[in-house]
Amino acid sequence: MNHIALKMLMGDKGKYIGIVMGLTFASLIMTQQPAIFLGLMTRTFSFISDVGLPDIWVMDPKVQFVDDIKPMQDTELYRVRGISGVEWAMPMYKGLLKARLTDGTFQTCIVVGLDDATLIGGPPVMVKGNIEDLRRSDSIIVDIDGALDKLGKPSPTPGNKPIPLEIGDSLELNDHRAIVVGIAKVSRTFQAQPVIYTTYARAKNYAPRERKLLSFVLVKAKKGQDLSELTRRIKESTGLSAYTRSEFMDLTYQYFMKNTGIPINFGISVLLGFIVGAAIAGQTFYNFTLDNLRQFGVLKAMGTSNWVLLRMILLQAVLVGSIGYGMGVGLTALFGYSMRNTILAFRFPWQLLIFSGAGVSLICIFAALISIFKVIRLEPAIVFKG
Amino acid sequence: MNADGLAVRCQNIVKIYDTGDQKVTALDQVNLDIAMGELMMLVGPSGCGKTTLISVIAGILDQDSGSCELFGENLITMPSNDKLNFRAKNVGFVFQAFNLLPSLNAAENVSVPLVINGMKRAEAERKASRVLEQVGLGERLTSLPAQLSGGQQQRVAIARALVHNPKLIVCDEPTSALDHETGHTVMALLKDVALQKDRALVIVTHDARVFNFADRIAEMDDGHIIKVVDSANGTQTSLKEAL
Ligand SMILES: Nc1ncnc2c1ncn2[C@@H]1O[C@H](COP(=O)(O)OP(=O)(O)OP(=O)(O)O)[C@@H](O)[C@H]1O
Ligand SMILES: [Mg+2]
């Protein structure tokens, strides 16, 4: 009877396409929206994941996430260096500073100060110049997205794209000259500001005079050192917070999950996609069954059992579900691919396939169930009605 | 009439449709016997209960009281699965509106009762093709219903009704959607090909022009069978006038 079910389904091309489109739409929304959401959430901790070498991040105990800077005294660095199991520990400054551009306008930037000697914590990829050039006086490295856009020089023809900031150009940070010696590629962060790298000592000059300026201490553990053991030891002997790299990413991620409207907003659009998809696909599938009720009645009169009819409807639902799911997921992948070089956040882990697969399955089961109910309750005697 | 040769024995059948606000007595103490090898026509004014009666006879509608035996089996007491199997094996249907599955071609449509009875698809379609040849549609095996005329569709439906060799074929107004000549061909087919010694046909019709195909005609009115006449002895003429 399976071939009959499939022929029934595909016999009416218009309706068949309608059902598949509804499911495609639902599957697209349920994959693409969470992918953007995951992409955004990944950005919350991309600053941490960009810093490759250190195993442990040490910071003020009140810090809630990576952008929540609570400066410590420089002496904390030496205390951390003194703890056993620490291979090395380097200071890092991270703060928001106003840069004065050549045209006199101001732009808030994320300024990162790296250990003067080792430059640990520097940008992951250099586009132009060399990270070692940071050792020259007044030197900074800017991220390429900032250089192309927010830090760019105004175009001579108004309304056009700004002229990109290049090596040799200069800025003013808190009345101090800063000369661009390199352009870097950094992962986009949740904050849209340009990123400026410089040395720790210079960052202290740029920053407003304050007693405390040390944002993080970056720690490398000795070989074979148990990381959770070491973080515990650092916490105990300094009274500071210490997290492994992944713990700190998780802390940041959890902060954004709990304290921002982002999960809610995306949750709502995923839910809406699910409901609209369920309504369209469920409705068209149900209508399809209603239109075919007479055919089901004929099969029933001729002795087809409810069980077999149920299997036929399930087969139809599984088929349209699989096609719609495949197309929706495919379109999402295509969308992500075509957006790969834009500002849009997008992340498509395999778990998302399961998530949207479950969503589409739910819709199909729901659509099939209401249809099955109708067909099971169908009186075969309707076949003689005009 | 010998009870062993009986295809259908209806005794005191009552069927009441309860639509909530009103009750319609569609069948009121109906008694009717149909013999094997007999072509029985059911006639009567609209709403008199003809369709209801053949639905009960074919086992697709349960009566409220009375008994209806099909080849000695009382369908109403049968477990529903057995009833389904019984129907799948023993009953063929022909409808006024043909009721072919529109996305299946002629051979596939005719093969459906065989597939329901568990036959493999390929074999079922082979057998269906042979029956389609018998009804004169050997050339149209792969045509979809929409590509066939009304008369051809009804011939496909007749092939479907007899492909699995059922002992009873019920037809509700098989000719009323067709013009006179085509209706005549369809009736001839039913009488010559479908009707056999070990098979009974019950045909509901309004169409007086086909009465002469009947062996017997049962006339109904208002839920009753008011008379059953033998069409061989010429009573059909008076019936024609009555309707
Ligand atoms: N499903 C139903 N629910 C309620 N009443 C029904 C139902 N089916 C039939 N009836 C009523 O039962 C009576 C007999 O109906 P039936 O269809 O058997 O008549 P019929 O002789 O076949 O009529 P026609 O020649 O118009 O087809 C009619 O009064 C009809 O309105
Ligand atoms: Mg009727």
UniProtKB/TrEMBL annotation, chain A:
Top-level taxonomic group: Bacteria
Which compartments is it annotated to reside in? Answer: Cell membrane
Q: Which residues form the MacB-like periplasmic core domain?
A: 36-236
**Where are the bilayer-spanning segments?**
16-40, 264-288, 308-338, 350-376
Any Pfam family the entry gives: FtsX
Q: How does the entry describe its membrane topology?
A: Multi-pass membrane protein
Print the keywords alphabetically. Answer: Cell membrane, Membrane, Transmembrane, Transmembrane helix, Transport
- Keyword hit for Secreted: no
What is one GO cellular-component annotation here? Answer: plasma membrane
The residue ranges of the ABC3 transporter permease C-terminal domain are: 269-380
Q: Which PANTHER family match?
A: ABC TRANSPORTER, MEMBRANE PROTEIN, HEMIN TRANSPORT SYSTEM PERMEASE PROTEIN HRTB-RELATED
Can you name this protein?
A: Uncharacterized protein
Q: What is the lineage of its organism?
A: Bacteria, Pseudomonadati, Pseudomonadota, Gammaproteobacteria, Methylococcales
TrEMBL record, chain B:
Q: Which CDD domains match?
A: ABC_MJ0796_LolCDE_FtsE
User: Which terms are listed as keywords in the entry?
Assistant: ATP-binding, Hydrolase, Nucleotide-binding, Transport
Enzyme's top EC category: hydrolase
The reply on keyword Cytoplasm is no
A Gene Ontology cellular-component term:
plasma membrane
Pfam families recorded: ABC_tran (PF00005)
Q: Name one GO molecular function term.
A: transmembrane transporter activity
- Keyword Cell membrane listed? The answer is no
Assigned EC number: 3.6.3.28
Give every ABC transporter domain span.
8-242
> Could you say which protein family the record assigns here?
Belongs to the ABC transporter superfamily. Macrolide exporter (TC 3.A.1.122) family.
Q: Which PANTHER family match?
A: IMPORT ATP-BINDING PROTEIN, TRANSPORTER, PUTATIVE-RELATED
Name of the protein this chain belongs to = Phosphonate-transporting ATPase
Biological classification of the source = Bacteria, Pseudomonadati, Pseudomonadota, Gammaproteobacteria, Methylococcales
